[in-house]
Amino acid sequence: GCVLWLDAMNYYSVNIGNPNLWNDISQGPNGIVSARNFGWISLLTNAPGFPNNGAFHFNGNGYFTNSACTFLPYGSTARTVAFWARPDPSNLYIHHLFHYGTDGAATAWGPTFINHNALDPGQTSFNIHQWGTNYNVPGSWVHGEVAFFAVTYNPTGAAYRYSKNGAATAAVGTASPVVNTVYKAGNGFCNVGSRVNPSEWWQGAISAVYMFNRILSDTEIATLYAATARVF
Hints:
Strand content: 35-45%
Order of helices and strands: EEEEEEEEEEEEEEEEEH
Low-confidence stretches: 10-20, 27-48
Helix content: under 10%
Largest sheet: 9 strands, antiparallel
Radius of gyration: 16 Å
């Protein structure tokens, strides 16, 4: 089921790390909305938001939030990650939107935006990053574009499947090395807006992050997209 659902909704604030502003509507074991407090911690000050349309802005230079996330899919287990976001133009090569695990080869996992702007202004891409380029869709996301992405990981065949704005594709990637996300001993932090170490900051807006401990079907992904569609 849904193990993490962080949604900016209509909130905005000087402190994106306030757990009352990341509207936590993650589900409990039986589909019941959980009341647990994930205790999001922030290094932010005066981070601008988008009033009335539900997104937070990250400046690409140290803005991020994190929390202890023992409940996320670890090891090589099945999972789906989805999010609403908008990358801003940047000279950064890689922007981490959501990343968790232990920072090392194949042991951390999450979606990123790859910016090839310095080499070719027309080449940008969406990527799943586990300390290496394991899944990459060149040209799939451009600066300033608000988009909904979902990626499923199937441990059978180590196969990735990609959706943009509710439209699914065929399986287009194979994890190499095989996914083996390792819980970070002592705190288990997952980060929104940076790599787990932290570094390689997100530059742009993030409206929502969803994580499931199973593979969502194409219909479920399309339904989630339609139910959460937004502009910011």
